[in-house]
Amino acid sequence: MLLILQSLVPGVYKLNEFLLPHYFKIFVEAAKKLSGYDEDKNTYINPSNALKIGHSILQCCDILESQSIIEGKSEEELQTLRNFKKIFQMEWKYAISSNAIQDMSKKKFNKSIKLPNADDIQLLHNYLLDEMIKGKNLIEKGLYTQVTYKMVCQCLLSQIILLNRRRSGEVERIKVNDYLNRDQNKMQNEIIKSLTEVEARLSKNFVRFVIRGKKGRGVPVLLTPVLKETLDVLLNRRSSFGILESNPYIFAIPYTVEGTYRGTDCLRKSADACGASDPEQLRSTKLRKHIATMSQLLNLSNSDREQLANFMGHDLAIHNEYYRLPDETLQISRVSKILLAMESGKLHELKGKSLEEFDQYMMPVNLSDSELDEAELDEETVTGI
Question: Which region is the signal sequence (predicted)?
């Protein structure tokens, strides 16, 4: 933005020198250039740039105003800056923001939403598990090499992200104390008796601890027995791999004070190596969206959905608004049932029925696809349509 401003006004170089009321139109022109505005079509190549730069300029105004007050600048200089800020707040939405928001909305109309393939997720899980166990066995045999440590550490990091659908940044910054200081008290008998047999067994086998999530919110992490065993192997041999005592993180890089392996890089590397058909979709954000979206296919109670949202680190309202089945899926598969029922004149027969129960009324259940095609052909012959 600053480079574009400098090209439009030769001789002015610093951003604070541009924060004057008579340069407002220059800012508008620069923002349009920055975001690739097309005057003829009234569209942007990158409308989000136009929106973000507006917020950034206002932040710069606040910073400059604070510095000016601290440095004891004259009231005239302060008033000039405040006048620019007032003009910017009043006029920017008409000059840039409203058009950019409309353009972003239009571009989202027919944008497809791709989610990870279930087969690819299974491939990734099996690959990570095999590599992790192979490396763990080598370490237990006394083979303390940097290559082995790196392989096990990166596979364990990716596996925790995959199992828990956690943000990669949250997992890579798990501290040793987060794990060691976990609550290890046994569950009360009354609570165990209220669980199903499967739930009770899972409660005994899984390990749970809480880490720092987005905005400082505490979010849980679950470990299967094999993940716990592998993690314990790494923690018990940290010094053998050159992990400094000053490094507090579980997935520490050897001989660094605070360095950790990046979850995004580890997951990308594993996704490419596991033989997935679409490795680009095997990213932490996509995996999080996958579980939150596909959970709608389950008949979850409000309490269950709230538990899932809390586990994902979401507010329930945000979870319902942003993590849902794509509209095209719902409209093609479900809303179309209602439309066809109305068109057929049989809507009165479906009173009190759920959408799942519509199927047996919508089409004959005993006909195969080929038989249905033949029936349609016969109907066309009789009606002449």
Answer: none
The residues that bridge with 126 in the sheet, in sequence order, are none
Write the CA distances from 294 to 177, 287, 288, 289, 329, integer angstroms. Answer: 34, 11, 10, 8, 12
DSSP assignment string, 19-74: -SGGGHHHHHHHHHHHTTEETTTTEESSHHHHHHHHHHHHHHHHHHHHHHHHHT--
Cβ(151)–Cβ(143) under 8 Å? no
User: Tens digit of pLDDT for each residue in 20-30?
Assistant: 999 999 999 99
Distance of CA 252 to the CA centre of its chain: 24
Partnered with residue 207 across adjacent β-strands are 223
pLDDT in tens, 93-121: 999 999 999 988 888 776 667 788 889 99
Tokens 């997951």 label which residue?
267
97 vs 165: CA distance, rounded Å: 34
Helix or strand holding residue 310 (H, E) = helix 302-312
| Mean pLDDT of the region 209-237 | 91
Q: Above 50 in pLDDT, residue 197?
A: yes
Cβ distance 275 to 264 under 8 Å?
no
Q: Give the β-pairing of 207-212 and 218-223.
A: antiparallel
Residue 56 has pLDDT above 50, yes or no: yes
d(CA 353, CA 47): 45
DSSP tag of 207: E
